[in-house]
Specification:
single chain; alpha+beta; 2 domains; two-stranded antiparallel sheet
Length: about 150
């Protein structure tokens, strides 16, 4: 009991040193916990089937810059590649600048082959497609779990 009292008195003798010690201990514990959490989440296995078999390739400058279209054939010729699906990012604004949303467009027929976790209800894919000149537009907003009948689990 006399040691606890001695430690307490000595800790209160120099308050600046005690505060700096407590701050350094709390900062180091915070950094340790944050780094362990980040490493754990980066190494966590995804719940999506076959997600560990997917590889995403993007432009060296930014993902908003598309890769040249001839890369599709070059990537398809690599041994072990089953399917290649191009994706294009474009930004959208709804009414004003505060309502920004990012979109990725993909080929709808290949999207369900590469991403088997995407599910459509009883309606056919052709019924979900917008009536545009190209007929290959199907997009969902970022952060949505239910988008036009697509369910992301």
């Amino acid at each position: 009991m006399k040691f606890a009292r001695l430690i307490w008195k000595n800790a209160l003798r120099n308050k600046r040193r005690s505060l700096l010690t407590a701050f350094s201990l709390s900062a180091s514990l915070f950094l340790l916990t944050t780094l362990r959490t980040v490493l754990f989440e980066l190494q966590a296995v995804s719940a999506a089937p076959q997600s560990d078999l997917r590889l995403v390739t993007r432009h060296a400058v930014a993902f908003t810059n598309p890769l040249p279209i001839y890369y599709l054939d070059r990537i398809k010729r690599i041994p072990g590649v089953r399917e290649v699906i191009p994706g294009t990012w474009f930004g959208g604004i709804y009414i004003d600048q505060n309502n920004f949303f990012g979109q990725f467009t993909v080929d709808p027929e290949k999207a369900f082959v590469v991403f088997p976790e995407f599910q459509l209800p009883a309606l056919r894919l052709e019924d979900r497609r917008p009536h545009h000149a190209h007929g290959h537009e199907l997009s969902c907003g970022s952060g949505t779990r239910d988008c036009g009948g697509l369910h992301f689990d």
